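ok trying again, last paste got cut off:
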Amino acid sequence: MITAQKSNFADWILYRFFRRSLRNHFFTIRCRGIENLRDLDPDSPTLAFSNHTNWWDGLLVYYITRLAPHKSFFVMMDERQLSKNRFLRKLGAFSVDLTNSIHAAAAVRYAVNLLQTNNSLVWIFPQGEIIAPHLPVKVKQGTNYLASKAPHAQMLPVAFRFQFFKEDRPEVWMEILPHFHAKESSDERIEESCNEALRRLDLAIAAKDLTGFERILEPKLTINKKWEWVQLAFKGRLKEFSPEN
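nice, full thing came through this time. structure:
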């Protein structure tokens, strides 16, 4: 397996590069329950898990972990992908090969070892592969094994949705539920909590209800919005400006 080799210098550079990439590809990122991430116990490790629908998921979990600076980021990543992007090791990525039981077991042991450090925040995608977003989350059997080996850890359920509205780029909507203790975990509870987070997101998106959502990535203004800003600035009416259509 490929182990993580975290580097503060690489993290400083890549965070800025990836944040710019997110702003170029998404209009904004909205998150509800961000306090559930920020308020994680610094003296207990965390195993966070979410649905997995596309390549951006890994970058998003890296980005939002920066909102909990008392936690050290790690993410379990497909070995074929990490072997092509080995620089991600510098951020905390380590590999898992689900096609080989021996290699997969090595990755699990490595993750368990990371969860012995109080400030660690280890992300996994319990579906084990990229799944179409309209399908419910079905976790791979044995996902809970990690929790059973770290019963002192906090389990953090997270869900993502990608949605177009009025802008030329999609928005990311994120739901973070309150954590529960690993000793109370099971494969079924992991699955149910992911689907509950997705259900809450779907209801909010259908109603376009922003109640409780915090914007954690500021919009990059479109051309028409830049022109609107100039017009309002010229008239001394910038208080009326909104970055959204």
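cool. The chain has a mean pLDDT of 93. The radius of gyration is 19 Å.
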